[in-house]
Design a protein that fits this description.
transport, Na/Glc_symporter_sf, 27 helices, Na/solute_symporter, DUR, mainly alpha, two-stranded antiparallel sheet, single chain
């Protein structure tokens, strides 16, 4: 891995918790969550008409998810919790900052792509449908492979880190953890679809944020630390014992860190690929109501920044400062390279602070983060297999039942495949650190061809097909070539170093821009965006507010539908949201990547006690505010209304399922919008988007 200093030796740390605790969390809690989600799904069907036997509900939640749930979607990868702490341990305060800066702007930028898709192709279910309609089947297959590779490595990245942590704190066999983690995810995703993913994301995010905030307070209440100022002195002393190569004066307390900024570039590009090529981000954008896409992704991205920054800074500082104390798990030795790269900085710091309670908290946090994001990945791959494979190449006129069946197969297949693939990586010596560094090599080639597909009408078919393929070949060649050059051989160790991964990722990301532009110049396309709307994709009617309904909609006088070619009032409003998204994306990137860190990097500034105290306090305040937003915003933004609707339905008043049955007996097919809340809530969305 990216060794700043080699720490040899093998792990001899005894797990603080028993294997039984590991199995209880991974299996029992996973099954309980799955059963609760099955019950919620059944209740919502009875009281609000949310029928998961309908494809539009299963895959897009009838396109009516509100801002609160959208903002609390699957940002909290277990990789962020574990990775931000281990780069903080390696590079100091610069590590968690660059980890956060490599994630947050990408989530905010995606708001622009999401709202553009909402405006141009409102009936889509996956990003691959957009590619197929514009460029045909060859491009469709190329991007399908790229997206599936992205999902496979993303899942492996999460499972490797999560399984290593579970094994470290409970002694549970790492392969058992790898295969059992997806079990509960498979069950509730199988039954509840994308709505179950949104709801479990909310529940898991709330628990993770509460634990993270607990750690941010607990760190300064233990006798060895006591205050932020004392923690500063402990980290300063750690730098005297183990100076950091490439950091200003060898200190952990500076943003002038060569290793950290190289990691920042690598991580930013890699996450750019993870976001753009992850169909789950598009599915959640298609699932959100029009007024929720931009604010949801923007709020989610900005709130997310605090988690790797705040948690990573505090926990890595604790690990560095207390590593020479008798209560640190590895005392009297330092953590080994494999322990750091395996993501064990966070659990070891938690054990030092809170003993078995800290280990249990990290176990629960890791489990929640891993299963939450696994659910999104599973539903993404199942959507590809159902809409982009089964519906397109096997059964054009597939019914709801056909597509749901294929989606169920996709859920089970990918959950099993991802566990098997992660196991294979483990046995060849690959861990969280290796996948975190090399991820961009395979996820980045499709970034700009995909962006151009959605935003640039000139990109040609040949450019869309050839540029990502050539970009991937370029990236792999550069990655393996530089690994051989710097490491003397092509091996797991040499290919996991920072420089080969950085060069390979930059080549994978940037070369497709050149390829696409040059190929397009030969014979540019002039695509008409309105052509997207000529193909029927949704299995049910899309109203003028871009939500799915189960009844025939008759536009009222003066109400312009989406079939007007995209020139109605809704289209103008979506264009306005697009401009807002572009401004927020640019501001977030320049704020997190230029205005804030680069002056500190260039000035070679070393943190003093006051500045470090302010740095940590601001990070913790941001973390707590993010927790409040993640927990309470979804409740007030439609949650109370949905609870009220469910209560009224269970009491027999306004029972939607009963209304549907009576209307069907009367010869009409009627069911209300089965969206994120109810008809009343959806009407609120319509009023909101119309200004």
């Amino acid at each position: 891995m990216s060794n700043l200093y080699v720490r040899e030796g093998i792990s001899s740390v005894q797990p603080p918790l028993s294997q039984a605790v590991g199995y209880i969390v991974v299996v029992a809690i996973g099954v309980i969550i799955a059963l609760v989600m099955m019950l919620i799904t059944k209740v919502l069907k009875k009281t609000t008409g949310e029928d998961n036997k309908k494809t539009e509900m299963f895959m897009t939640a009838n396109r009516t998810v509100r801002t609160g749930l959208t903002a609390s979607a699957s940002w909290l990868w277990s990789t962020a919790l574990l990775g931000s702490s281990f780069v903080g341990y390696d590079y100091g305060v610069a590590g968690p900052f660059w980890f956060a800066a490599g994630c947050s702007p990408m989530i905010v930028f995606f708001a622009l792509l999401g709202i553009s898709c909402k405006r141009k192709i409102p009936e889509a279910h996956t990003s691959l449908e957009v590619v197929r309609i514009r460029y045909g089947r060859v491009a469709h297959v190329v991007f399908m492979i790229l997206c599936l590779v992205n999902n496979i490595f993303a899942c492996a990245n999460m499972l490797l880190g999560a399984a290593a942590v579970i094994t470290a704190v409970t002694g549970m066999h790492i392969i058992a953890a790898t295969f059992l983690l997806p079990v509960g995810v498979t069950v509730y995703t199988f039954v509840g679809g994308i709505k179950a993913t949104f709801l479990t994301d909310y529940f898991h995010t709330a628990i993770i944020m509460i634990i993270a905030c607990y750690f941010s307070v607990k760190a300064f209440s233990i006798e060895e630390v006591g205050s932020v100022g004392n923690l500063f002195e402990l980290v300063q002393a750690a730098a005297q014992r183990h100076p950091v190569s490439g950091n200003q004066d060898g200190t952990y307390l500076t943003m002038t860190s060569k290793g950290a900024i190289l990691f920042g570039i690598l991580h930013t590009l890699g996450n750019f690929g993870l976001v753009i090529m992850d169909t789950s981000y598009f599915i959640k954008a298609f699932s959100a109501s029009p007024a929720a896409v931009v604010p949801g992704y923007t709020i989610g991205g900005i709130a997310y920044f605090a988690i790797p920054w705040g948690l990573g800074t505090v926990m890595s500082s604790i690990a560095l400062g207390l590593e020479n104390q008798p209560n640190f798990p590895t005392f009297p030795r330092r953590m080994t390279t494999s322990e750091v790269s395996g993501g064990l900085v966070l659990p070891y710091a938690a054990i030092t602070m809170a003993g078995k309670g800290g280990a249990a908290a990290v176990l629960l946090m890791t489990f929640m983060a891993c299963t939450s994001t696994l659910s999104a990945q599973v539903i993404a791959v199942s959507s590809i297999l159902s809409f982009d494979v089964y519906r397109e190449y096997f059964k054009k006129k597939a019914t709801d039942r056909d597509l749901i069946r294929s989606s169920h197969f996709g859920v089970i297949f990918f959950a099993a495949f991802s566990a098997g693939f992660s196991t294979m990586l483990h046995y060849v010596g690959i861990d969280l650190g290796w996948t975190l560094y090399m991820l961009g090599v395979v996820t980045c080639p499709g970034i700009f061809p995909m962006i151009f597909t959605i935003l640039w009408k000139r990109q040609s078919k040949a450019a869309a097909i050839l540029s990502p393929v050539l970009g991937l070949a370029t990236g792999l060649a550069v990655w393996l070539g530089t690994a051989s050059h710097f490491g003397g051989e092509v091996s797991v160790a040499s290919t996991g170093e920072v420089l080969p991964c950085l060069y390979g990722t930059v080549a994978s990301c940037m070369s497709p821009i050149i390829y696409s532009v040059l190929i397009t110049l030969v014979r540019p396309q002039n695509y008409n965006w309105d052509d997207f709307k000529k193909e029927k994709l949704a299995l049910e009617k899309i109203e003028s507010d871009l939500t799915t309904v189960h009844h025939d909609h008759v536009p009222q006088a003066g109400n312009e539908s989406l079939e007007d070619g995209g020139h109605g009032p809704e289209s103008k409003e979506l264009k306005r949201w697009g401009r807002i998204a572009a401004v927020w994306a640019a501001a977030t990137f320049f704020g997190h990547w230029v205005i804030w860190p680069l002056p500190m990097f260039g000035s070679r500034y070393i943190f003093g006690k006051r500045f470090y105290t302010a740095w940590v306090v601001v990070a913790i305040i941001w973390l707590w505010l993010s927790m409040l937003v993640a927990i309470f915003y979804p409740i007030f933004d439609g949650g109370i209304q949905q609870i009220r609707d469910v209560y009224r339905g269970l009491r027999g008043r306004d029972n939607i399922a009963g209304t549907v049955a009576s209307q069907e007996k009367g010869g009409t097919s009627a069911s209300p919008s089965a969206g994120s809340i109810s008809d009343a809530t959806r009407t609120g969305d319509v009023q909101e988007i119309k200004g």
